Amino acid sequence: MISRFFKNKALITSTLLFTNSTPTLYKYYSSTNILNTNNNNSNMNTNQKVEKVVIIGSGPAGHTAGIYAGRARLEPLMFEGFMAGGVAAGGQLTTTTEIENFPGFPDPISGLELMEKMRKQNVECGTRIETKTIQKVDLSSRPFKIYVEDELETPILASTVIIATGATARRMGVPGEEQYWSKGISACAVCDGALPIYRNKHLVVVGAGDTACEEATFLTHFASKVTMLVRSTNMRASKAMQERVKNNPKIEIVWNTVLTAAKGTEKSLTHLTIKNVVDDKVSDIEAQGLFYAIGHIPNTAFLDGQLKLDETGYIIAQPYSTKTSIEGVFACGDVQDKIYRQAITAAGTGCMAALEAERFLAH
Hints:
Layout: H1 2-19, H2 24-31, E1 50-56, H3 59-71, E2 77-79, H4 111-124, E3 128-130, E4 134-138, E5 144-148, E6 151-163, E7 167-169, H5 177-180, E8 185-186, H6 189-192, E9 202-206, H7 210-219, E10 225-229, H8 239-246, E11 251-254, E12 257-264, E13 269-276, E14 282-286, E15 289-292, E16 296-298, E17 329-331, H9 343-362
Parallel strand pairs: 1-2, 1-6, 2-3, 6-17, 8-15, 9-10, 9-15, 10-11
Antiparallel strand pairs: 4-5, 5-6, 7-16, 12-13, 13-14
Helix pairs in contact: 3-4, 3-9, 7-8
């Protein structure tokens, strides 16, 4: 019933907008151009257009939201960011060399190519995309005000906002990291662990939490051996997860040890330099893969605490929804998902966000 409601509503909206008729639904969309323009904000032009939907961030979540919003004739405006969070437009997926688990692509496709295809489809569906970074937002009144970096004088006005800014994987910044990123170094075992370059090889996981244990266990399905580097004599992981890795014959835990460098050939990672923090002994170990499991940083700083976040900075969305603590603001993708963090799940929530924004505008 809900799916049918959404589809019918999108169809009605499209028909009304393109026949230039003037029933209530068309009048509502027209009225968004003057919503709350009689306030005292000196930065607002009373004749300034109010966007129906503004999408902040790109990646699978943002582009899927744009595709659905565009097909619903909501004329979405996307700010895909310019090296926002230190990552190119398109998000974390642009740093992945090969993707084998995205439906519809039986042959491996690079993350960059996949994002280029999503972006092209998004534009063809009617989304306007600007390669600019959003510095801050004001969600305290309607219309919402969105401030573009280096263009703070006049904010973008929006009736609804979809946040798809993602989360950036924590890195260690060791020598060789940049050179071998996606050539032997990754921050997602589930995404990359099954790739041919890692199969039947010695792989190393840095981390001591539940995620590190889960990723090490996952990698044993493909690796000849998995080594976990833990900087102390204790792990933060739950007892159950600790027992799982300790009892796995393919996993070795090296305690009191930190990573100091990544080494290899021009094309691939071959060795890691590690140091024992107790006796300061430095040694090299052979490794063809290195996986960081030291957490992610959700890209929510620009919100300045205006939305309800969890203790680690992720946006809290309502159950089975992308609705946030403020009506008319929706969150999708990794910015609100610290569990799955997959391209396909991000795309699914992007679809949800667009449908919920459409329903919000229609009411």
